[in-house]
Amino acid sequence: MIYDYLVVGHGLAGAILTCFLENNGKTALVFDVPNPHAASRVAAGLINPVAGKRFARSWRVDEFLPAATAFYRDLETRHQVALFHQKPILKLFSTPEEQNTWMGKSADPAWQEYVETTHLQLPVSADLHQELGGLLIQRGGYVALRAFLELREQELARRQVLRTEPFDPEQLELVPGGVKYQGVEARKIIFCEGAGGAQNPFFSWLPFSLNKGEILDINVPDFEAEYIYNKAVYVVPVGQGHFRIGATYNWREVNEEITPAAREELAAKTKDILKKPFAVVNQYVGIRPAVRDRKPLIGRHPELPQVAVFNGMGSKGVLMAPLLAQQLISALEIETPLWPEVDIARYFSLYLASKSNT
Predict the structure, then answer these.
(1) pTM to 2 decimals?
(2) Which tens digits make up the pLDDT trace of 5-21?
(3) Rounded Cα–Cα distance for residues 61 and 41 (Å)
(4) What is the per-residue pLDDT across 12-46, written as a single tens digit (0 to 9) for each?
(5) HEC states along 204-268?
């Protein structure tokens, strides 16, 4: 059998891409060694239309959010399982300066679709530090990433198209019109390796800016959270008194070691939100496949048209991957142009420079 695609990596990006390949009638063989420290298995799966301390709309959110919502809802319908938990996000102001920054932007009609209400002051709460008020963000929520990945792994294993073994790029043969790997033939190969993509010999010239993130799982007895809360960290209610807290950002020590310093930082920031006592249940670490310009890395290799990459979504993969997966498949199948902001063609000069140095 000749597959349409080999897909290397089955984190969030690879899993979503494989779903759309199937939806387009394409056959795919997936290679993946599950890594408990992969960003997809650690992250809370948060979708937030409002980004950062400066209250910016998430990049292209008007296009990404409908596509993501439709994708996760379709999966839920087909598999009869809850994956996308829509829940308002209460962004609490940390300082009067944050209040002023938001008020300077709030009159823009573009915010009406995503910000339900603004509270310059909220009543004293026995549960929360919310005296400075905040804004209530709608159309947000989180995706149960572990459940999604396990669901997809089971489906691929059932159809015998998942190989849980390391992929060795040195054994990949490039042939006219396709690739061969250990006796398997395919028309194309797509690398979706997350942080591992920085070491991929075909794409190591791309400007990855990997960063380490740590999160906590905590238990808060007798606290029924009405919202997802955000103030320096997010507090995501995942049911039965359990919450996920995150995340740290560390560009200096990009390793998979859990640190006491991150635990202390996250606990301290959680106490700035929650008045109630909590117990830390677990701590996780993952490496985000971020990029220098904070835009994904998608497209064909500059000289090898049968080799492509789908990577670099950082902490926004839950939101961006469904639409971008469709765009990449269209680009590979019918030559539809990719958005220039995500197309790796924007970095071809780095590829040429890497060749001149070898």
Answers:
(1) 0.95
(2) 999 999 999 999 999 99
(3) 23
(4) 999 999 999 999 999 999 999 988 777 888 888 99
(5) CCCCECCEEEEEEEEECCCCCCCCEEEECEEEEEEECCEEEEECCCECCCCCCCCCHHHHHHHHH
